[in-house]
């Protein structure tokens, strides 16, 4: 069903890029992975896939992306460790939109430096329909839209801009990407930074990274297939007991939602024993956390992410 789409897009990219070079910011999410494979099919090694470690990636993600795309798919992958730079840029910043903007800007800065060296002509982006629709509606600034090509003086190619997430997954599957990628839950561009409410620090990111991994693992083990399942560090300490001693620890919110396209979503009716297992594991495996809450709000009125 998607063969024709793939053929068309590959041809389009090949014709547009000509003898030039293209770069893509590859995150390992389904959108950028699909766009990267399409472009790789079209122009081979003239596609430079830049993978930036922002410090806000999920557990095991950098290793997974490098192994999959460099070792298995043979992409021309450039790995940039920019963790310190991102943490530095976000010091003292608590406002969600400011955080998103700073992350977006830092990303562009890092990317620009790499792009200058590569001297590329085109930028391939895995933008999908909800990204630009929601950005137009000014609900949240999405970090993979806007500003980037102008600053880099690159011509933009967005092969997936008319697709919704479920369609991108089908294309990814058709392209032979592993299930682990095309069945992957969406993950926001600003990553775990928007799953820490308020100021971001390496310590807080480490907590939410562990909690996210536990949530994803337990939801998968239970055989549930939500649109997204994740943890958020609320930055609120609450009182608990540990043995006979009063504890004062962090609170984690768990969010599991069902959705078709991310535009609207419902909180999932996750079996209570699964939620309890998640709470047990988070509070026993992450010593800083003393309480776990389940978010029962739909979108609207809430968004899927907390920031
Ligand atoms: P919200 O929180 O706006 O999220 O209901 C809708 C869907 O989009 C994902 N999301 C993002 N995706 N860049 C992205 O590519 C972003 O900046 C971004 N912010 C949120 C979110 O995880 C959900 O699936």
TrEMBL record:
<comment type="pathway">
    <text>Purine metabolism; GMP biosynthesis; GMP from XMP (L-Gln route): step 1/1.</text>
</comment>
<dbReference type="InterPro" id="IPR022310">
    <property type="entry name" value="NAD/GMP_synthase"/>
</dbReference>
<keyword id="KW-0658">Purine biosynthesis</keyword>
<feature type="domain" description="GMPS ATP-PPase">
    <location>
        <begin position="1"/>
        <end position="184"/>
    </location>
</feature>
<keyword id="KW-0067">ATP-binding</keyword>
<dbReference type="Pfam" id="PF02540">
    <property type="entry name" value="NAD_synthase"/>
</dbReference>
<dbReference type="InterPro" id="IPR014729">
    <property type="entry name" value="Rossmann-like_a/b/a_fold"/>
</dbReference>
<comment type="function">
    <text>Catalyzes the synthesis of GMP from XMP.</text>
</comment>
<dbReference type="GO" id="GO:0005829">
    <property type="term" value="C:cytosol"/>
</dbReference>
<keyword id="KW-0332">GMP biosynthesis</keyword>
<dbReference type="GO" id="GO:0005524">
    <property type="term" value="F:ATP binding"/>
</dbReference>
<dbReference type="Pfam" id="PF00958">
    <property type="entry name" value="GMP_synt_C"/>
</dbReference>
<protein>
    <recommendedName>
        <fullName>GMP synthase [glutamine-hydrolyzing] subunit B</fullName>
        <ecNumber>6.3.5.2</ecNumber>
    </recommendedName>
</protein>
<dbReference type="InterPro" id="IPR025777">
    <property type="entry name" value="GMPS_ATP_PPase_dom"/>
</dbReference>
<keyword id="KW-0547">Nucleotide-binding</keyword>
<comment type="subunit">
    <text>Heterodimer composed of a glutamine amidotransferase subunit (A) and a GMP-binding subunit (B).</text>
</comment>
<dbReference type="GO" id="GO:0003921">
    <property type="term" value="F:GMP synthase activity"/>
</dbReference>
<dbReference type="InterPro" id="IPR001674">
    <property type="entry name" value="GMP_synth_C"/>
</dbReference>
<dbReference type="InterPro" id="IPR026598">
    <property type="entry name" value="GMP_synthase_B"/>
</dbReference>
<feature type="binding site">
    <location>
        <begin position="27"/>
        <end position="33"/>
    </location>
    <ligand>
        <name>ATP</name>
    </ligand>
</feature>
<keyword id="KW-0436">Ligase</keyword>
């Amino acid at each position: 069903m998607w063969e024709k789409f793939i053929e068309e897009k590959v041809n389009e990219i090949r014709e547009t890029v000509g003898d030039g070079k293209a770069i893509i910011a590859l995150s390992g999410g389904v959108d950028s992975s699909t766009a990267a494979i399409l472009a790789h099919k079209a122009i081979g090694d003239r596609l430079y896939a830049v993978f930036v470690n922002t410090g806000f990636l999920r557990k095991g993600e950098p290793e997974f992306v490098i192994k999959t795309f460099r070792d298995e798919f043979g992409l021309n992958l450039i790995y940039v460790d920019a963790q310190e730079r991102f943490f530095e840029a976000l010091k003292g910043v608590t406002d969600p939109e400011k955080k998103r903007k700073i992350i977006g800007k830092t990303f562009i800065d890092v990317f620009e430096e790499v792009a200058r060296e590569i001297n590329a002509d085109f930028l391939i982006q895995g933008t999908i329909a909800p990204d630009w629709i929601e950005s137009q509606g000014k609900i949240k600034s999405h970090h993979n839209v806007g500003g980037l090509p102008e600053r880099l003086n690159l011509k933009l190619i967005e092969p997936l801009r008319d697709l919704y997430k479920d369609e991108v997954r089908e294309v990814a599957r058709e392209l032979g990407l592993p299930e682990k990628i095309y069945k992957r839950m969406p993950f926001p561009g600003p990553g775990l930074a928007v799953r820490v409410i308020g100021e971001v620090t390496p310590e807080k990111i480490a907590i939410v990274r562990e909690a996210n991994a536990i949530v994803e693992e337990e939801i998968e083990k239970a055989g549930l297939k939500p649109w997204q399942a994740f943890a958020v560090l609320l930055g609120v300490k609450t009182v608990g007991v540990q043995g006979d001693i009063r504890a004062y620890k962090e609170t984690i919110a768990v969010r599991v939602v069902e959705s078709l396209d991310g535009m609207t979503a419902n909180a999932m009716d996750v079996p209570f024993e699964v939620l309890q297992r998640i709470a047990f594991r988070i509070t026993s495996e992450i010593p800083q956390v003393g309480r776990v809450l389940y978010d029962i709000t739909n979108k609207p009125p809430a968004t899927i992410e907390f920031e």
